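Data availability (excerpt). All sequences and predicted token strings are deposited with the supplementary files. A representative entry, Tumor protein D52, is shown inline so that the format can be inspected without opening the archive.
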Amino acid sequence: MPKGNKKTNEKKEDLEKFAKELQGSDSDEDAVVIEQPTVEPNPPHNDNSSKKVELSAAEKDLLRTELDKTEEEISTLKQVLAARQKHSAELKRKLGLTPFSELSQDLNRSLKTVTETEAFQKTAEVASATSDTVKEKWNDMRNSSLFKSFESKLGTAYNSAKMAASTSIDHLAGAARTPTQTGTPVGEEAKPIS
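Structure token line:
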């Protein structure tokens, strides 16, 4: 019998046993006491006097047993998960898979998925057609007489500005090379002061 079915059957048996104990018990010791809380118009917020459900010793034992089993299963599952993660990491290491290569593969798969969609295909077609149209319009505009006239005028203005700047720089350079005549006359030599 599989392990899961065995546990399920054990739980069913425990519940049936508990139900029989409740039916066969006439004493007040094993009885479950459920009291209805009284409804107050404005109940106080921090009042610990609310009625609690009292559990019998058998119920408490049953719940403790089930809690222990559940915690044991959780512990086992954590151990199994840790072992599987360790095994996975070891296999990846042997295959030479690094986190970067995994990320790269994931991105490539995602990109391939996106590029294969119909929406992407249509967008690519529209972008290509738009690009072709812009190229054609740009070539038409460059070949127009208005653009050629503008280009010619712009070229002339550029050349004029370049010539003016060159002339100004030459003039300033020439002025810097010749000494100024405002100091000592050329014919007189400076005499030392005695």
